[in-house]
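This part of the workshop introduces the protein records we will be handling. A record pairs a protein's sequence with a compact description of its fold. Backbone structure tokens are a discrete shorthand for how the chain folds in space. The question running through the whole workshop is how a given chain folds. The record below serves as our worked example for the rest of this section.
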Amino acid sequence: MRLISYNIHKGIGGRDRRYRLDRIVRVLEDLHPDLICLQEVDRNVLRSHHHDQPRELAEALRAEEHLYQLNVRVKDGGYGNLILSRWPFQGAHQVSLRMKRRKPRGAQLVVVETPEGPFHLVHWHLGLAERERHWQVRHLLGHELFRASEKLPTLIVGDFNDWLNTLARGPFARHGFEQVTAPRSRFRSFPAYWPVASLDKAFVRGPVAIRHAHIAHSRLARDASDHLPLVIDFQLNHQGAT
């Protein structure tokens, strides 16, 4: 199974600043994913021609299921997180991660019914301040909706904004998670045209075997957004991650 986590920057290129959602679609099509987790997805915003990006992406990529979470409002629209899946969801929840006086943030929690069985997928875009991010992770990992599915194989992905990688040895270590995207030098994803920071991360717990994980460095991906996509090939088993 293949999962992509990708901050699409509203479909605006990191270098040319042009709005071209078709480039995002082509990047994703070329990677042949089963599950897609996207951050900074616009809906009804002027800069993206008032497009309904969640609907357009779901249709273009032929998603069986999709779930959109609008976090930041911009006039009559806004932007947020989007999950696209080729398999149905057993359950889906959305949790606010907003810290007082900070930009609204959120997490999406879905149980995906894959051919290998159900697994728990958490998708988010964390805040810019370290204290905020640590609070967000603690809040989510202690939330009753997260704990309701904590016995399932669990994969947490998204844009962590964690430049110094302090979350890995903090709340994730205390909750028994292993980092997929280590060492950081192999997972530099921002800025796309000259990546120096590993901001797009993944953590697993339980019987999830990671077969391969990498950052996609195609020429098109370097132009389509200000982040590069994170690609994770995995399977569910009882032997843990490899």
Remarks:
- The helical segments are 21-31, 53-60, 130-141, 144-147, 168-174, 219-224.
- DSSP finds six helices and twelve strands in the chain.
- Residues 2-236 form a domain with the Deoxyribonuclease I; Chain A fold (CATH 3.60.10.10).
